[in-house]
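Please decode residue identities from the backbone states below.
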């Protein structure tokens, strides 16, 4: 979402009463269906997200062991790293997960 919403005091109180976290409205806007005056998350919207996440997980599973080498903002090469190479690569000072 490029534009951010600002929570009114009333909205913050109502969300707390109804068990909605502050970050929930971003997900509602992302996956919900736009309706008059806002968004509604339908079961159909959730199911579509679930299907998409399953596809992403399956795709990610197929990438396990693949290595991408980049330098100066350019991809140099990509290949399937041998299992014994994993430890060597992970020992380096710069080894960190991109998910963190």
């Amino acid at each position: 979402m490029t534009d951010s919403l600002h929570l009114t005091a009333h909205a913050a109180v109502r969300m707390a009463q109804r068990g909605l976290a502050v970050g929930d409205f971003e997900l509602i806007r992302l996956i919900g269906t736009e309706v008059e005056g806002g968004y509604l998350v339908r079961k159909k919207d959730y199911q579509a997200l679930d299907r998409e996440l399953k596809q992403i997980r399956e795709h990610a599973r197929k990438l396990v062991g693949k290595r991408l080498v980049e330098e100066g903002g350019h991809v140099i090469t990509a290949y399937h790293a041998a299992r014994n190479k994993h430890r060597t690569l992970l020992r380096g000072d710069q080894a960190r997960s991109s998910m963190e």
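Observation: The chain has four helices and four strands.
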